[in-house]
Specification:
- Two copies of one chain form a homodimer.
- Chain A is mostly helical.
- Chain A is built from eleven helices and three strands.
- A three-stranded antiparallel beta sheet of chain A has the order 1-3-2.
- In chain A, a hairpin with a 3-residue loop joins strand 2 and strand 3.
- Chains A and B meet through helix 3, helix 4 and helix 7 of A and helix 3, helix 4 and helix 7 of B.
- The first copy, chain A, binds a DNA duplex through helix 3.
DNA sequence: ACATGCATAATTGTATACAATTATACCGTG
DNA sequence: CACGGTATAATTGTATACAATTATGCATGT
């Protein structure tokens, strides 16, 4: 999804974020600048910058002169995010319906085709990557910097949950089917339909998580 | 809205953000760590941290080894944000309709009452503050950390535009009337109505900006 | 045994020093 | 005069040093 040609500071940021979202750093764990710096082989400076950024993202809480603590992501947080996303992905699809190009539609088609293949094979990693890309194309097609920004944030935020739900072949294939319908609505430039389908796509994911069982989604964490 | 008991670093962050949003730093202007540090009487370290945070907020772009540049906020950005907010404020009101308490409803009533007073007097500053507080109560009443987080971000983002639109007495009074209707829906725990009214409240703001004339909203910037 | 207070250690906050990279200005050459 | 190259300066990136604050542990007294 994104290149590795990052500066050191940016890499530190991504590493810590990944460690929080993957559950490597536990909820309420204190993140000490010195310790993390030693782990990653850098000084405190880039670690501090990363922690300050992560606070803005809501992943850590910083108590001045005390420390940085991992903010837990509750089941309700995840639900809320998907409900927020349902509204915004809907708006995104609506806008994309106006602007989307033939090239983008072609890539969406290919994306779904490939995802079906990998889902059938059980290649969860690739399915997640293709899902990332599918939504990213829509974000770009919305032609809205602000909407893309906020949606990308949330998308990253729930990456861990998506890795689990999309590992289920049945859900992955159904998700692809929903992607196909959205793509079709976009091709027809049908704003109303595109919005409704993208909206439902997210709500279906919540339903899926409900039936999957939230305990299973969180078992690795604790 | 928030206390001033901040650490130095946090204050630097807020100052720079304010300078960007108020237009003191022009679009595409290069923000040099040394210069800003001297302006604010601090070293480069807290400035760097602030700039990295502002990049995450989308207010500056950082080109590695080159510099930090102010990202311009276009008219379309503002429109998009209000449309995004219309969806999310609607969702927020819907959730708040379930959770809102009598105390919060009382504060909303008082808030509107005071705002009417200040609007009539032409105290734009107070009207903006009360508007901030009105929406903040709703964000809290939604009982959703994630929704509150993203809405607060956007709310700050458009602070400058709000200062202008709410300086118009007619618009301020109409805004208060809309607040009153939303509050009434909340009091009745009418989710559907609350969502629709909050949604329309934002869309009306867009309409108002349209009739106000975008050029006037941006005249100070350029 | 437990609470209290003080000394010490650990940690964060800020400033500064140094390294790496990029911009600038000057000079020579065609 | 235009162009290019090189030395110099300016700026960012990272590490370290020092100050301020907070945590820890031990001794003391009750």
């Amino acid at each position: 999804m994104e290149s590795d040609n990052y500066s050191l500071g940016a890499r530190v940021f991504h590493t810590i974020r990944e460690n929080i979202l993957s559950g490597k750093y536990e909820t309420d764990e204190e993140l000490k600048e010195k310790t993390i710096g030693e782990e990653l082989g850098v000084s405190r400076t880039p670690v501090r910058e990363a922690l300050r950024q992560l606070e803005l993202e809501g992943l850590v809480t910083i108590i001045p002169n005390k420390g940085a603590y991992v903010v837990g992501i509750s089941q309700k947080d995840i639900r809320d995010i998907y409900e927020i996303r349902s509204r915004l992905e809907g708006l995104c699809a609506r806008w994309a319906a106006s602007y989307i190009t033939k090239d983008e539609l072609d890539e969406l088609d290919e994306n779904i085709y490939l995802s079906d293949f990998h889902a059938a094979k059980g290649n969860a990693e690739q399915v997640v990557e293709l899902d990332n890309r599918f939504h990213e194309i829509l974000y770009n097609a919305s032609h809205s910097r602000e909407l893309k920004h906020v949606l990308l944030d949330f998308h990253h935020y729930v990456q861990r949950v998506r890795k689990i739900t999309l590992a289920d072949t049945q859900r992955a294939l159904r998700s692809n089917e929903e992607h196909r319908q959205i793509t079709e609505a976009l091709r027809q430039h049908n704003e109303e339909l595109a919005e409704r389908l993208a909206n439902e796509h997210m709500m279906n994911t919540i339903q899926n998580m409900d039936s999957y069982g939230w305990d299973n989604l969180f078992q690795e964490r604790k």
